[in-house]
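INFO batch 0412 | record 1 of 1 | parsing
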Amino acid sequence: MSLFKLVKRVLQLQMLTVLLVVAGAWALGGDKQGISALLGGLIGFLPNLVFAFLFGRRDPGKSANQVVRAFYVGEGLKLGLTVLLFMIVFQLPGIAALPLFIAFVAVMAVFWFSLLLSNYQNL
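INFO prediction complete | emitting tokens
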């Protein structure tokens, strides 16, 4: 599987995970838990989406150093955006922390497991 197909697949799986966790949280706990899970899932998903759009383009003219530098800039941006989103969300009234963190961790787990499994498929 090519890198770009893998990135697209990871983003799709992350969005599916957000939807499933939100549906579960809403079904089990109601609106407050569902909204909190949605926000947590988006905190995990949106920085990855931004990274994919800004740094996922193929540019054959880039040197290895430029690619590595862009990767580190992108990862720094992802981390900063994640922190900013958490800061914003925790200013909102009525946020339930448990479903928020469950959704965030689930989305991040999809990212890591997808990368891990893709390595095994390429062996």
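INFO post-check: The two ends are 11 Å apart (CA to CA).
INFO record closed
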